[in-house]
Amino acid sequence: QVQLVESGGGLVQPGGSLRLSCVGSIVSFSFFSMGWYRQPPGKQRELVARITKDGMTDYADSVQGRFTISRDNIKKTVYLQMNTLKPEDTAVYYCNGRWTGPTSRDYDYWGQGTQVTVSS
């Protein structure tokens, strides 16, 4: 049973910072690609950032240079450092864990989400 638990969301003023954390109850956490997605009000869920099991990262254009994803395989935790936050970053943020099987099929697991609100 894979469980992902996010924390760190909240209310922040524009220009502020937050750090999200996601702890995974995954025995083989280091073999998982981990990502952060978000779903703004009334919109579809979108990829924010991803980090592979080898530590390679990828970001949405809208957060490039402001957000940083990182992972600690010993703590089984993935982080999202969010700086220079904007009102348009307001969304529910979800942690994603992805394991690619031997046949290249992806198995996705999701956290429950944490609300981030950027407002003055």
Shape: elongated
How would a textbook summarize the main sheet?
A: 7 strands, mixed
Compute the number of strand runs. Answer: 11
Q: What does the average pLDDT come to?
A: 96
Would you tell me the structural class of the helices and strands?
mainly beta
Helix content: under 10%
Continuous helix count: 0
Beta content comes to over 45%
Give the SSE order as H and E letters: EEEEEEEEEEE
Which stretches of 5+ consecutive residues score pLDDT under 50? none
| Radius of gyration using CA atoms only | 14 Å
SSE layout and pairings?
Blueprint: E1 4-7, E2 10-12, E3 18-24, E4 33-39, E5 46-51, E6 57-59, E7 67-72, E8 77-82, E9 91-100, E10 106-110, E11 114-118
Could you characterize the architecture of this molecule?
This protein is mostly beta strands and 120 residues long. The protein contains no helices and eleven strands. The strands form two sheets. Strands 2, 4, 5, 6, 9, 10 and 11 form a seven-stranded mixed beta sheet that branches. A four-stranded antiparallel beta sheet has the order 1-3-8-7, with no helix packed on it.
